[in-house]
Amino acid sequence: MYLPRSFHETRTDVLHALIRSYPFATVVMQGGDGLVANHLPFELAGDSLLQGHVARGNELAKADGAPVLAIFQAADGYISPNWYPSKRETGREVPTWNYAVVHVRGRLRVVHDKVWLRTLLEKLTDRHEATQPEPWHVGDAPEDHVEQMLNAIVGLEIAVEHIEGKFKLSQNHPDANREGVIKGLGERAGRRDAELVELMQRAEERRDER
């Protein structure tokens, strides 16, 4: 991806934090008829493995050993030039889009082991059910239904060979413009504007720590 220096994020803890907060990835690979993309949640295991699962009929289930690109995207949003104080002073500003993404490249391993699969399903379910008043667990389903479900899927594991992030969060603007963007997003209060503000504020904190 196009990666200007001011937006390049290489700190592993920051990249991992985005993956854990936004685990739903787009997985791209070269198929027989060209590029194919699939969308699925992953669990980050340690520092170097992504784990997930797909239906047996999915092309990924037949792609053991294939090189893949997994794209994780956080909140994003349109940025109006009207939010920049510098626009009022010079008029020399244009619209843009703020966002944060992490790209992971690696090779796919297809897993058929049912014990491995069930452990993964329990881990994924427990993490995403944790905020529910009465969390659902895999064991709550009838055992024959769980077995049927396990027969219908395969596990996926991506060994991370390269990871990088692009955090385009107005770092190339002066402080007054960044503050104007945060204020504008807060007033607009769109679907993911609060999340985008939080990403920008965290980026400011990390910049101050450097």
TrEMBL record:
InterPro entries the record matches: Split_barrel_FMN-bd (IPR012349), TR_PAI2-type (IPR007396)
Coiled-coil segments on the chain, per record: none
Domain of life: Bacteria
Cited PANTHER family: PROTEASE SYNTHASE AND SPORULATION PROTEIN PAI 2
Name of this protein: FMN-binding negative transcriptional regulator
